[in-house]
C-alpha cells in the first residue's frame, strides 16, 4: 500500500506526533509519501525534524508558474470545472475565493504527483487548508482522501472551514478524542457519522521510560507555544499566587512564540523571576530531560484538542495539573493521575499547584505510575497506527 500524507506546514517543532504516526505506519510496511505546502526549516531544532524536512515534498517549492500551469490544465477538463465550483463555494463560506483558487492550483499539483507516485490514498492532518487541498485534489481525479481533525481551530470555525462538506466527501474522518468526535458529529450529516472514527495520537513508550521522581521543592514544567489559547500568562498569575503559600515552587516554561515578550514582562511585574525558567524550544531529548527533572506537568490551556504533551508527561510517569477542557479529562483522572481545574481560573490553578507542592513524593510517584499505565493502554502509537492502517486498507482494497 502506498499512501501520502498532506500537511500545510511540515515538519514543525509542535508536530512530532505526525512524524511518529508516519513512522509507525512505515513499520507496518506502508509506504508513505510526505506532502506539505511549505517548510518551516528555519525553526527546526530537532535533528529528527530536520531529517523529516528532507523527506518531505514541499508543494510551493515547485514555484508559481508550475502551480498555475497545473491549475490551468485541470480547468481543461469537466472535473476541473466541478473542482472550481467547489473551491469557489468553500471560499465564499470562509477564507476568500482568491485563496481557494490558490488551493485549487496546489490541489492540481498534488493530484498530478499522486498519479506519478502511484498513491492510493491521501490523508491530511488538520481540517483546515490541508483538508481543502486534499478534497480538491480528489475532485480533480486524485486519490480518495481522509483527514484528521485535532481542534480547537476547526471547532472555532466549522462553517467557514466547510467541515460538513469535507466530511461528506471524505472516505472517512478521524478525531483524536471522543470529545473531538462529538464536535464533528455536531456539524456532519447524521448519515456521515459512521465514517467519523476516533484514532488517538500516540507516543512511543520506549522513549519515555519513567525516571525517578525528584525529591525536594516542587518543580513543574509547562510545554507549548506561547499564545493566548495556551494560557501561560494566566499560569504566571497563578504561580505568583501559589508561591506565597508554597515558596519552593519553580516553573520551567519550554517553548516560544508571539507572547514571549509579554511572558517575560509578566514574570518581572509579578516579581517571581527566581521561580521561573524559560528555555525556548527544545528537541525531543530536551523535553524528556525537563520532564524527568520535574515533579509534574502543568497545562493551563483555554482550548485544546488532546495535547501530546499530556501524553508524554504521563508516559514519563509524571502527574498532570491541567484545565478541564476538550479531550483532557479523557486522560487526566482527578485524584488518580493529577488535578483538573476550571479553565481561566487563576485561583483554582494556584490551589492545584499548592496542593501539588504539599503532596508527598510517594503519592506523586503513585499518581505518575497510574498515569503511565493509563496512557500506554490508550495511546501506544503502534496500536493507534494499526487502527489507522486498517482504515486505509479498507479504502484501498
What is the architecture of the largest domain at the second tier of CATH?
3-Layer(aba) Sandwich
- Which CATH first-tier class of the largest domain would you pick? Alpha Beta
Number of beta-strand segments: 13
Largest sheet: 7 strands, parallel
| Helical amount | 40-55%
Instruction: Report the order of strands and helices.
Output: EHEHEHHHEHEHHEHEEHEHEHEHEEHHH
User: How many helices?
Assistant: 16
Structural class: alpha/beta
Provide the domain count.
2
Determine the strand fraction and express it as a percent band. 15-25%
How many whole angstroms does the radius of gyration measure? 22 Å
From the 3D structure, determine the CATH topology of the largest domain: Rossmann fold
Low-pLDDT windows of residues:
none
Shape: elongated
Strand order in the largest sheet: 3-2-1-4-5-6-7
CATH superfamily of the largest domain: Glycogen Phosphorylase B
Average pLDDT confidence is 96
Termini distance?
A: 9 Å
GO molecular function, one term: glycosyltransferase activity
Organism: Ruixingdingia sedimenti
EC number: 2.4.-.-
Keywords: Glycosyltransferase, Transferase
Description:
One of its GO terms (molecular function) is glycosyltransferase activity. The chain is α/β, with parallel strands linked by helices. The chain has 2 domains: 2-202 and 380-396, Rossmann fold (3-Layer(aba) Sandwich), CATH 3.40.50; 205-379, Glycogen Phosphorylase B (Rossmann fold, 3-Layer(aba) Sandwich), CATH 3.40.50. The protein has helices at residues 16-27, 47-55, 64-74, 78-93, 97-117, 129-139, 153-156, 163-169, 178-187, 232-242, 260-270, 284-293, 308-315, 346-357, 361-379, 381-396, and strands at residues 2-9, 31-38, 56-58, 121-125, 144-149, 172-175, 196-198, 219-223, 250-254, 276-280, 296-299, 320-323, 338-341. A 7-stranded parallel β-sheet has the order 3-2-1-4-5-6-7, with helices on both faces. Helix 1 links the parallel strand 1 (2-9) and strand 2. Helix 3 packs across helix 5 and helix 4 (78-93) packs antiparallel against helix 6 (129-139). The termini are close together.
